[in-house]
Amino acid sequence: MKRLNGWLKVLILAVLALALASSGMASAGAAAGGRISGKVTDSSGAAISGATVSVDGKGQSGISAANGAYSISGVPAGTYSVTCSAAGHVSQKKAGIKVTEGGMTTVDFRLAPAVIKDAKLEEKKLDAEKKPSPAKAKKEVMARTTADMAMPCAAPAEPMPGYMGPPAQTGMGGEAFVQHNTEEYDRIYENTFLAALDNPLSTFSIDVDTASYANMRRFINSSQMPPKDAVRIEELINYFDYDYPDPTGNTPFSIVTEISDCPWNEAHRLVHVGLQGKRMDVSKLPPTNLVFLLDVSGSMEDPNKLPLLKAAFKLLVQNLRKEDRVAIVVYAGAAGMVLPSTSGGDKDTILAALDSLQAGGSTAGGAGIQLAYKVAMENFVKGGNNRVILATDGDFNVGASSDGELVRMIEERRNDGIFLTILGFGMGNYKDSKMEKLADKGNGNYGYIDSILEAKKVLVSEMGGTLFTIAKDVKIQVEFNPAKVKGYRLIGYENRMLNKEDFDDDKKDAGEMGAGHSVTALYEVIPAGSKEEIPGSGALKYQKTKLSPEADESDELLTIKLRYKLPDSDTSKLIEVPLIDRGVALEKSSEDFRFSAAVAQFGLLLRDSEFKADASYDSVLSLAKKAIGEDAEGYRSDFVKLVKQTQLLDSTRK
């Protein structure tokens, strides 16, 4: 009996132990992983905001706040390497970071400023020291640069003029390496002054893209002057909101005109033309059918690419409604669908699909575009907003990859009622020229995401304008009165120029305008009677150009004509607005006029334009500071800081 009782006690203890073990396993299974948090600072100890901290191999990341703090939750228990990257700083990797279930691990980063190497600069130094021949010296420098790299990359390319390459990155062993620059920008040939008597009509397509401003800012924040061809002045101007009046009646936008002194050339006048799109309550927008087309190729593995992309799209997903739908298509060596069209109300499913993405492989962008449009058509919402959002660095290298092939592919699909938004990410291999062409030809818009704050601006604050089109094929034609204007020059819009015959041709593609978007264009005007010479076409043999009596009698400086189509229409509507110069001085002009003039002048300096005349950073700052206005989001104040930063940076090159 005693022996039986003894066995009984052993059995009870065993059952209790098994129950406790099962309970422990259940608790462990229910745990949601651990948390990694910390702070990101620079070498002086100042907080760095917008830095990306990523858990290598897990696709999980966090973005540092204004105080430098970041947090990454839901990290499975284990040991990881964690990488921190920020514009203008050397990336830092910390290995052996242990995460426990339900625990918190603190990992702080202190980032050093980036040190940038340039092969041509090194070659000049070698020449100055009377080293071997330039060809041999260059070969030696390139060999040393390659040896510095901890990871393989494509064959080195010549650095573009004015660009010294991307910030230094950190290799697997923690040492710095330099990636060769292969960024691509189309050559911009600036608009010149035209004689109003010979060329009275100026015709162009509107542009609501803002990529150039954010991309330019990325260079400046990395202590580099941007390449001249990366600066599209109209995109700098249109990055900002202006206090234009809302449209009335059935017209989807209002038109504002103003004229005053030209800040950088006192002999000229400056014409300001503004369009304001109808503002709409995002909660009342028609249902949205979105296809996220996401580049997950190997070139997207950097912290400022795929990790930032995922964080950006999570912001958008949080603002979707149950009547909205999202599908996710990805492409690397091939294209595939990660998530079928899913209700915006099922946020957990969409977010989980985004979290699962990892980078690797080549870049079959053409196949991805074809699949994305196919999915968009299969889920087409009549009367709704049907849109593909392509997020990439633009480095397509498998299948259809040339600009011509991709543009033709996009043009074939734009008549299906599906619009296109392109969001650029990253640096070093960024293909701006390709992405701008695709957005222009795909009834779309184009932005560049350099931080989580820019993602919020594009995908949250301006979601209506980014995603919902209120007018398409919007074209402007300005007719100048030669009795009042000797010559004129459109500032920017070089790759949006149209022939005068295109204005009345409804088959000619032009720009799209989103809800709440504003569009601004500036003309620099030479008044009639000026002695300034304007290059012309020479005397005509068979005809003479003469002014009509109406031109001499009119007070009008010019007439603005605008054509647009409603999103579901193939027939354009026409609006005409005249402008009279009433001699308003610059200090009496509106804040919008002065601020847009300041941004334009800044663009002329960045491009080192032949038309910059007396432009200066001091003039830009004086104009901008007095025209900040309410500035609810702080974008104009940030512009002033950026100009100051650029002035200091530019002064070191002289």
Structural write-up:
It is built from 16 helices and 26 strands. It has 654 residues and is an alpha+beta fold. It folds into four domains: 78 residues, Immunoglobulin-like; 59 residues, no CATH class; 259 residues, Immunoglobulin-like (Sandwich); 179 residues, Rossmann fold (3-Layer(aba) Sandwich). The strands form six sheets. A six-stranded mixed β-sheet has the order 17-16-15-18-19-20, sandwiched between helices. The N terminus is likely disordered.
Summarize the amount of helix as a percent range: 25-40%
User: How do the strands line up in the largest sheet?
Assistant: 17-16-15-18-19-20
Overall pLDDT, averaged? 82
Give the termini separation.
102 Å
Strand content: 25-35%
Q: In angstroms, what is the radius of gyration? A: 29 Å
Biggest sheet, in brief?
Answer: 6 strands, mixed
Q: What's the CATH C level of the largest domain? A: Mainly Beta
Q: What is the number of helical segments per DSSP (H or I, 4+ residues)?
A: 16
Low-confidence stretches: 1-5, 7-31, 116-179
Name the CATH architecture of the largest domain.
Answer: Sandwich
- Superfamily at the CATH H level of the largest domain? Gamma-adaptin ear (GAE) domain
User: How many structural units, i.e. domains?
Assistant: 4
Task: Give the strand tally.
Answer: 26
CATH topology of the largest domain: Immunoglobulin-like
Structural class: alpha+beta
